[in-house]
Design a protein that fits this description.
CATH architecture of the largest domain: Roll
Structural class: alpha+beta
Number of domains: 2
CATH superfamily of the largest domain: 2,3-Dihydroxybiphenyl 1,2-Dioxygenase, domain 1
Strand order of the largest sheet: 1-12-13-14-11-15-18-17-16
Low-confidence stretches: 1-12, 163-171
Strand content: 25-35%
Shape: globular
Distance between the termini: 26 Å
Order of helices and strands: EEHEEEHEHEEEEHEHEEEHEHHHEEEH
Helix content: 25-40%
Number of helices: 10
Number of strands: 18
Mean pLDDT: 89
CATH topology of the largest domain: 2,3-Dihydroxybiphenyl 1,2-Dioxygenase, domain 1
Bound molecules: fe (ii) ion
CATH class of the largest domain: Alpha Beta
Length: 407
């Protein structure tokens, strides 16, 4: 692993750079049945279904569900006709991420600059307006069929995100014109308010691209969107006897936006990235979203009790885990404050580096295809990605790949 850059103390001013990205505004999923997917994410992961845009609000082409938790905002979209782009997307790829949207100061200026930098438009600037205010959006294409929408919100009013300049706050207001508050899943929303899962914001979003294309997309994020490389891993870092991958972590938004890009590396058997591509119509896409918690033990216990299916970590992992981590942390005057037995009982992975440690765990795929999954991550000083867990993790992943007949 190589740490290539650290984030600057302050981002360049908007006047200097229209591509100053403030934060992840929202993540849009295209789903076969968004209503049922909304129930799944609310029930299993503790999201609140706040607003909808569907036939009852005048949306004739698609249904959209707005889910929130902490500073995480998801839109789940299903096409209502065969010609809606979501219908085709689901036919080709199954359920998955279509759009990783960024909050910006000026959507048209950001879009124009990205095009000038060599980006391709997904759609031109458009103004969404109602009595509560105006939101301006425009989008560019990235890998596969994923897009990045630039979202310009007003400074105040229902469509402002009061927290956008104050990282990791809460409070979401209204999402967009066209959405209305809903009582759908009210009992579940009430239960979630009383029994929170503790997910706070999107820590990173990982893309899988084809063999040999990682550096192409690294350059795209640098040239078109002004990202900086934050870390990189090669196949010596991320390899088992069977499979390997390479990864470069791109960052923007004063470190609030991190987008690692993976490509498969040749191994004895099929890489997990190649398995993803095989079941994703040989098309790059978002592999996982890492959702941040301040209390890994609480979040994993809550998610397990709700039925979330996590990767199984073998007991043997914990025989080595503390021996590996504790001396490293002791050398910087730190130690793992979580109860070791509880970490093991909950099957959580732990890793440390010279800044601190992190706890993480990965779900199994969230839909029938072995494509998108979530990571639940808690950082205690470490800004890394769990390199020390790669071997144990990949062996656990390979067991699952083998069960699916894809190794
Ligand atoms: Fe991750």
């Amino acid at each position: 692993m190589t740490t290539l850059t650290t984030q600057p103390a302050s981002a360049p001013s908007f006047a200097a750079d229209p591509l100053t990205l403030i934060d992840v505004d929202h993540v849009r999923f295209y789903c076969g049945n968004a209503k049922q997917a909304a129930y799944f994410y609310c029930h299993c992961f503790g999201f609140t279904c706040e607003q909808v845009s569907d036939q009852t609000t005048g949306s004739r082409e698609a249904a959209h569900y707005y889910l929130t938790q902490g500073n995480i905002r998801f839109i789940l979209t299903s096409g209502l006709t065969k010609d809606h782009p979501a219908s085709r997307h689901v036919e080709l790829f199954g359920d998955g991420v279509k759009d990783v949207a960024f909050t910006v100061h000026n959507a048209e200026a950001a879009w124009k600059q990205a095009i000038k930098n060599g980006g391709t438009s997904a759609y031109e600037p458009r103004e969404m307006k109602d009595g509560d205010g105006t939101v301006i959006v425009a989008a560019i294409k990235t890998y596969g069929e994923v897009i990045h929408t630039f979202v310009q919100r007003p400074q105040s009013g229902p469509y402002a995100l009061p927290n956008v300049k104050q990282a990791h706050g809460t409070g979401t207001g209204k999402f967009m014109p066209g959405f209305a508050q809903t009582k759908l899943f009210k009992n579940l929303n009430d239960f979630n308010a009383k029994n929170p899962c503790g997910l706070k914001y999107t820590d990173h979003l990982v893309g899988n691209v084809e063999l040999g294309k990682m550096n192409h997309w690294v350059k795209f994020y640098e040239d078109v969107l002004g990202f900086k490389m934050f870390m990189s891993f090669d196949d010596k870092d991320i390899a088992t006897d069977y499979s390997a991958l390479m990864s470069k972590v791109m960052a923007s938004g004063q470190g609030l936006i991190k987008m690692p890009i993976n490509e498969p590396a040749p191994g004895k058997k099929k890489s997990q990235v190649q398995e993803y591509l095989d079941w994703h119509n040989n098309t790059p896409g978002v592999q996982h979203l890492a959702l941040r918690t301040d209390d890994e033990l609480h979040s994993i216990a809550a998610l397990r009790s709700r039925g979330v299916d996590f990767l199984s970590i073998p007991d043997s992992y914990y025989e080595q885990c503390w021996k590996r981590i504790e001396p490293m942390l002791a050398s910087i005057g730190k130690s793992v404050k979580e109860d070791h037995q509880k970490v093991k009982d909950l099957g959580i992975l732990v890793d440390a580096d010279d800044e601190g440690y992190l706890l993480q765990l990965f779900t199994k795929p969230l839909q029938d295809r072995p494509t998108l999954f979530f990571e639940i991550i808690c950082r205690r000083g470490s800004q890394a990605f769990g390199k020390g867990n790669f071997k144990a993790l990949f062996e656990a992943l390979e067991l699952e790949q083998e069960k699916r007949g894809n190794l």
